[in-house]
Amino acid sequence: MSAGSPNSAESLAGPEQDRGEWPVGTDSFFQPHRAAFWLLAAMIVNGLFYTINMFSMGFRVVPVTALLGLLVWGLYTLVFLLVFRTLDLLEQHPPEAFVLAFAWGGFGAVYFAAPANIAIQSLCAKLVSPDFVAVWGPAIAGPITEEFLKLAGVILLVLVARNQFQTYLSVLIVGAMAGLGFQVVENLSYTVNASMHFPLENQVYPVLLNLFTRGLLSGLWSHAAYTTIASFGVAWFLLHPERSKAMRIAVALLCFALAWAMHFIWNSPWLEDLFDGSYREMAVMLAVKGIPAMIAAGLFWRVAARENGAYLHSLAAYFVPERELIRDDEWVRLGAPLLRYKVRREMGWTFGLRARRLKTQLQREQLRLVRKAMTYGRGAQTLRHEVTIRRIRAELEPLVQARP
Q1: How far is CA 377 from CA 26, 163, 372, in A?
Q2: Contact in structure between 101 and 174 (CB atoms under 8 Å)
Q3: What is the phi-psi region of residue 377: left when phi exceeds 0, alpha when psi lies from -120 to 50, beta otherwise?
Q4: Are 173 and 252 in contact (CB under 8 A)?
Q5: CA distances from 259 to 98, 110, 170, 218, 271 (A)
Q6: Residues 55, 33: Cα–Cα separation, whole Å
Q7: What is the C-alpha separation between 39 and 160, in angstroms, rounded?
Q8: Residue 182 · residue 101 · CB < 8 Å
Q9: How distant is the alpha carbon of residue 366 from its chain centre?
Q10: Which residue of 193, 205, 322, 395 sits 20 to 30 Å from the alpha carbon of 154, by its own alpha carbon?
Q11: Nearest to 300 by CA among 224, 249, 216
């Protein structure tokens, strides 16, 4: 049974649960009895071998660039991963979900996208002209293949662990990780290729150059943002079974079309004639092209975060009604990370560092209590967190009451 919500994805998760009792438990991402699991695994493994073969020459020719690139882009991934985990207060997915989503984007999607892009551009060269393809080929081929393939991985993950996806945010995080995987492997490929053809005998500078251009100037509004936008349509389809199937499909297609359009504009030669080739001008052009995608992705994240907060409130009200565990003011802030941080900061200013540390521990244990309760129900699995909350509160209250 699933850690369900009023918007449970009945279309993929099976018959609708009895709303008289909040369902408990979640699917694992290891589902060998489901075809989607084996399809996902096979495509990732196949793509992994393809990617290793693709980079093998680079590791032989420019080993410093390849190893430094792995380190730099690995750290780049960790920064985004930290942000995604911070936004997901419920920690709705285990680590393997992030690994599978990233692996699909970096290995599975890349494996299919590379030859598909070549095939589409070759077709366009025959139907139109080689000159047309040289200018517009990336804008035509990239969005068609890459956005479809990244989103296919999201859908496969939903089919593998169906009741893991109970909120918009649970789908968007997986989509963002799939996009990030594609983006990182693509950036590593560009980094190694740039070093192999770099005019100077320097294997470090291409890494720094690509980190600046593809990581910092392009990274905020690249593949992770596009797949976030497209994934919102999947989330809406899943979590609104009360709407007609035609409307749900239309919303999913609309979100995919928006992601496609953002990607098309990014790859297109539009605006290039208005800027020269300097880094400053290039940065301005990338910002003009990319900021709309970042704003759109940010709006979808905001909607998902608010819905995630409401879902968290519902879980807390249902599973943890005791006010000594989660007081009214704490319940209101439970799904708002910035408000929770503000309380911790004010607590530190007013009552000292120890009070802030205890408040941080209290908030963390309250979230853990809600998460455990929604998975296992109240009982032995949650008792430790209940005891810890009461102990922390007993330590915190004297500190707060000791000062006016």
Answers
A1: 12, 16, 7
A2: yes
A3: left
A4: no
A5: 21, 18, 19, 16, 19
A6: 34
A7: 10
A8: no
A9: 24
A10: 193
A11: 224
The tokens for 55 are: 């980079």
Take residue 228 and report the two structure tokens written for it.
Answer: 């976030």
Nearest to 91 by CA among 30, 153, 26: 26
Question: Counting every residue, how long is the chain?
Answer: 404
* Among 167, 168, 273, 265, CA closest to 222: 265
Tokens 């990182």 appear where?
184
Contact present, 77 and 177 (Cβ < 8 Å): no
Long-range Cβ contacts of 198-201 (<8 Å, 24+ apart): none
Beta-carbon contacts of residue 96 (< 8 Å; ≥ 6 apart)? 29, 30
Q: 């007993």: which residue's tokens? A: 394
The DSSP-derived string for 155-167 is HHHHHHSGGG--S
Report CA Rg, the chain: 24
Check if the beta carbon of residue 17 is closer than 8 Å to that of residue 4.
yes
* Residue-level pLDDT, tens digit, the chain, 404 residues: 333 343 433 333 333 333 345 555 667 888 999 999 999 999 999 999 988 988 888 888 899 999 999 999 999 999 988 888 877 776 778 889 999 999 999 999 998 998 999 999 999 999 999 999 999 999 999 999 999 999 999 999 999 988 889 889 999 999 999 999 999 999 999 899 888 888 778 889 889 988 888 888 787 778 999 999 999 999 999 999 999 999 999 999 999 999 999 999 989 988 777 777 677 777 788 888 888 888 999 999 999 988 888 888 888 888 999 988 999 888 888 888 888 889 999 999 999 999 999 999 999 999 999 988 888 888 888 999 999 999 999 999 998 886 55
